[in-house]
Amino acid sequence: MNTTYIDGGLRGHRVDALTTTDQLTAWASEHAGQFSDELPAVLVERACTPRTHEQFLSLREALRSCLQSVVEHAVPNGESLAVINGFSRYSASRLEISPGNPVVVTRRWQVDDPWLIALGEVASDACRLLMPDLIGQVRACPAPGCILFFVKSHPRREWCSPVCGNRARVARHARAGRTAPGTA
Questions:
Q1: 47 φ, ψ (degrees, to nearest 5)
Q2: In whole angstroms, what is the distance from residue 54 CA to residue 48 CA?
Q3: Would you call 180 helix, strand, or coil by DSSP?
Q4: What is the pLDDT of residues 81-127, one digit of tens each?
Q5: Alpha-helix runs per DSSP H in the chain
Q6: What domains can you pick out in the chain, each with its CATH number?
Q7: Cβ atoms within 10 A of the Cβ of 116, count?
Q8: Considering the entire predicted model, what is its pTM?
């Protein structure tokens, strides 16, 4: 979801890190550790299609809309929730046991396309952010010009990254300098 960001701070421009199927493939490779153990190896074998790329972008927008509502203490719109829930279904799997000594346990998904499974796992992970133990910790970064979300994992964490925290402190210092009497 944080694959769109502002480059250059307050006066910067919006950057989309997933404009092509190649960028989505690179993103999936970089985040391989966040998928089911068996999935990353299978993702490399099959190319990401333009349709799957569009589905990832659709999920990203639905997640951004939903989380924006959450941080504003509003009810997420039904359309965004339907998109997230629809894609989340692709992550469904079961374990099967095959005979042997020792027995072999294999994960089987309900869909064959590894990219749809990855899409489902991203959607399911996002659903976990909305569970009671985490929903109160989801934040929109308050730094000037930032559009990212984060989970407040420490009581003193206020920013999505140290860079944003520093940008906010610099802006605060600049404002104080402009309003202080006797400064040039």
A1: -70, 145
A2: 10
A3: coil
A4: 999 999 999 999 899 999 988 999 988 888 989 999 999 999 999 99
A5: 21-30, 39-45, 50-71, 78-88, 114-129, 132-135, 162-179
A6: 4-179 (1.10.3300.10)
A7: 19
A8: 0.83
